[in-house]
Amino acid sequence: MMKVPFLDLGAMNRRHRQELQTAAERVINSGWYILGEEVKAFEAEFAHWVGSPYAVGTSDGLSALTLALRAWKELGLLKEGDEVGVPANTFFATILAITENRLKPRLIEPDEVSFNLSAAGLKSAWSPAMKAVIAVHLYGQLAEMAALKKFCQQKGLLLLEDAAQAHGAQLQGVKSGAWGDAAAFSFYPGKNLGALGDAGALTGHDLRFIEMVRSLRNYGSHEKYHHRVQGPNDRLDEMQAAFLRAKLPFLEADTQRRQEIAQRYRREIRHPQVRLPQVLAGEASHVWHLFVVRVPRREIWQQGLQALGVQTAVHYPIAPHQQQAYRHELGGLALPLTEQLHREVLSLPLSPVLTDEQVAYVIKTMNEHPLV
Ligand SMILES: *Cc1c(COP(=O)(O)O)cnc(C)c1O
Fold first, then answer.
1. Three-class SS of residue 326?
2. Mean pLDDT value across residues 295-319
3. Is the pLDDT of residue 86 over 90?
4. Residue whose CB lies within 8 A of the most ligand 1 atoms, among 62, 198, 316, for a mutation test
5. If you take atom 12 of ligand 1, which residue's CA is the nearest one?
6. What is the DSSP letter of 140?
7. What pLDDT, on a 0 to 100 scale, did the predictor assign at position 372?
8. pLDDT score for 369
9. Which of 279, 280, 284 is nearest to 171 (CA)?
10. Which residues line ligand 1 (CB under 6 A)?
11. Average pLDDT value for residue range 235-258
């Protein structure tokens, strides 16, 4: 029986052993481990890759999201209690960034086909209390940024992209991270561009905002031992920056391989119970961080696939408003579509290190799954 692991992270990084070892050596020899040349160079290289004027390295994706909202508060563009529109089916961390800043999440049902926030959904949820929006490019597909941006401009809303799953997703030649007023990326090891530990970055085009984020991530310090604001320690470290620099040149090819596998899955998986993901705006707009199908009786599907050697995962089993952590703030909400998606979604193995044989085996196993 063939085995298809959901994600073989070791194999992902062993491909780059040489480049990663060279990067580590450079950092070891430099004698400088925090906010040095590697972070500076990675910020420049990543900003260039995204097509944004600035990038700021952070300790992880959550801190990038949190710092963006915090910087807008420090600049007087947001204040405590303001509402932030956000898709209800996002990963928990997106919501944490809002409540960490004592802002109020306004959970919006996603579009059922794209899993993303739509302009129509945003419009119907809008109220004058809403001051910012977080568009999450969930599973790797760019949200409909042109329409969202237009609405945000009309209403004077700040637009933050959660691009943690969508490095390089693009529409009309504009990549994720270059659409919003700011964007947050995660380089958690399993993300499309993954570090060998925690790492993140923020992009943006307003220099005042970027300078605020730079000082916020470093105890609110704009100059050594001078603190304008009370900031956390959310720095990206030199070692992770060096690893990311080593891997960035391979991201384009990895993305192509992801798109190739996704295309095969979409063409060849045929089962009356499986709803396949759809691309709404051209193949380049989806970078397939995850290949998420919808099935009824998911647990039976998952067990059946596992028994045949195909490991799957669920992103995510519990919606943020149904998490114990938010039982007081969000527990009373009813979001039927979001709740249904959380019951039905199933992520199939998809990564650049899958072989063609493994891809074919996943397709065959899906198609031969008995009706449940
Ligand atoms: C991974 C992820 C985050 C958080 O990133 P970390 O680096 O793990 O803190 C935020 N939002 C989304 C959509 C993510 O997938």
1. helix
2. 97
3. yes
4. 62
5. 164
6. G
7. 76
8. 94
9. 284
10. 60-62, 90-91, 93-94, 136, 162, 164-165, 186, 188, 198, 200
11. 98
CB 78 within 8 A of CB 102: no
In the block, residue with structure tokens 């900031």 = 231
Q: Hey, whose CA ends up nearest to atom 10 of ligand 1?
A: 93
Task: Map out the domains of the chain with their CATH numbers.
Answer: 9-249 (3.40.640.10), 251-367 (3.90.1150.10)
Helix (H) / strand (E) element for 292: namely: strand 291-294
346 confidence band (pLDDT: 50, 70, 90) = very high
Q: Does residue 307 register a pLDDT over 90?
A: yes
User: 164 CA distance to ligand 1 centroid (A)?
Assistant: 5
What confidence category does residue 298 fall into, taking pLDDT thresholds of 50, 70 and 90?
very high
CA of 21 from ligand 1 middle (Å) equals: 26
Q: What one-letter code names the amino acid at 120?
A: A
Is 90 exceeded by the pLDDT of residue 1?
Answer: no
- Dist. CA 109–CA 16, nearest whole Å: 40
- Asked if residues 292 and 165 have their Cβ atoms less than 8 Å apart, the reply is no
Specify the residue for token string 């996603």: 110
Nearest CA-CA partner of 39 in 169, 163, 182, 187: 187
